[in-house]
From TrEMBL:
Record PANTHER family: LEUCINE-RICH PPR MOTIF-CONTAINING PROTEIN, MITOCHONDRIAL (PTHR46669:SF1)
GO cellular component: mitochondrion; nucleus
Designated name of the protein: Pentacotripeptide-repeat region of PRORP domain-containing protein
Organism, scientific name: Photinus pyralis (Common eastern firefly)
Top-level taxon of the source organism: Eukaryota
Amino acid sequence: MKCCGPLVVDHTPKARQLLCVAIFAKLKSLNLVDVQHYNTYLQVSIENKMRINYTEFLEQMSCEPNEQTFRLLLKAVCEVGDIQQAFKIVTAMKENKFLANEELFNVLVLAHAIRGGLNGVAPILKTMQSAHVSASDNTFRMIIRGLALYGDKAEFMKSLRMYSNVIQEKDFIHLLMVLGTKGFHSWFSEMIEITGLKQISKQNAEEFTLLCIALIHLGNSEAALLYYKQFVEPSSVPTGDFAFPLLHEMVIAQIEPKKIIDVISDLKKEDSNTVALERLLGVALKEGFMDTAWELLKAVTNIRPHYFWPFLLRASKERREIGVLGVLEEMLKMNVRPDGDTLEYYCIHFCDTEDPHQLLVRLHKLGLTVREILTPLVSFLIKQSRIDLAVNLCHQYDVALSAHHVLPSLLKNWNFKTDVNNIVVILKKLIVDAHDAVSQVLVKVLKKCNSLDQLKFYLQLVQALKLEKIDINPTVAEHILNGLRSKEPSPILKEIESLICQFEGTSIESSAIPHPVCSPFSMRVSQSTF
């Protein structure tokens, strides 16, 4: 139960109290409750600012209350300014002959300050004098806190001036919490002037940060940010960290995305944190706050396709193809075109590819061009050993393929049992984009040839390329010939070598650069040029 109080800064007091009640109820059902448990429950209720009905609480106790129980009950009702219940409890304490000490008077001072301001406090201070109980620094702190809760700025500032010497740094932080909770955070600049506390020490830095986080979860992020900017210098934290813990909590607390974006915009203008938006987008995605993530993404300038990858992955898990197409549609609405990697690895991979042509049609209807779709779709099919379907698409659409994207897939998933004609169809689509695509394939596939059957396949490939009148670079041809010579001689090797030499432009003579002296166009310099 002790952990259900302010230590849980990322929950509202109401949520913390519900947890405390559940734990207490479980203990009662197990018949494990004694007076100490009741007292702990009261202490947590006080910390969570929960109202307690004094009479009902005592009636529900399964054991006898002790003096601490009455003192906690008094504190509980005084914390919320309930003077009537406080009077009843004090009467009961007198009947039980409990000592009227300074602690008792201090909580009464708090209650009367909350309800009646300075005028309400005066009678209690006189009663203290009559009872020979001296007012201490704690008494004055109670007056100041009570007046903050009372809500009269003039009286609060007056008391602060009167007793400013009793306010230590921790007290100052507690007062910031009270003002922030009540919506009086604009008073804090005058507080600084009066108290002279202009910075938070390192030993209280963590408590100050927790205060800001708690305010965010209480719905007052404005106060949290105001305090934070006042007491934390951008230069005192690593680049990109300024105010980020607060922004993180704003996402967790599900603060309206527009408010979060406005804060980020201000930080960027102030040059105190220029990377918060992208980092916070990652937080929203990780925590599963997709609506917030979408709004944050829309605020990003120069959105790149990979920003959508987490959205596509999540959508694919939830709704497979329908989810993916939905994200793609939003992507296009934001004027972002998906690249090949985005389509292949984060879209097509999660779609129904039983009929690739129909998938292409569905993607095309979203607003993608055939050129954008065909390359990643063909690459995907090659990796799935469905090259025949890839070839069908190539026949249907007169669109070049990106060698940068498809060639690695073709080589990595090379199969010596594939129909050579299918490979040639793919290569013809690739050389439109990269003239050296065929050369790369011939060189790299030759290295994979480790058997007679594989060399036969290689021969068929070269023959098919020759038949299609596809040329190769002379330098590459020489490289292939050297590769053939490194293998054990055989009739097939000779046949391959012969075919390679027959490719147009592979002889040394045809590739040599003519010497200027031998050139039919002599390099004479006319006298008129001087």
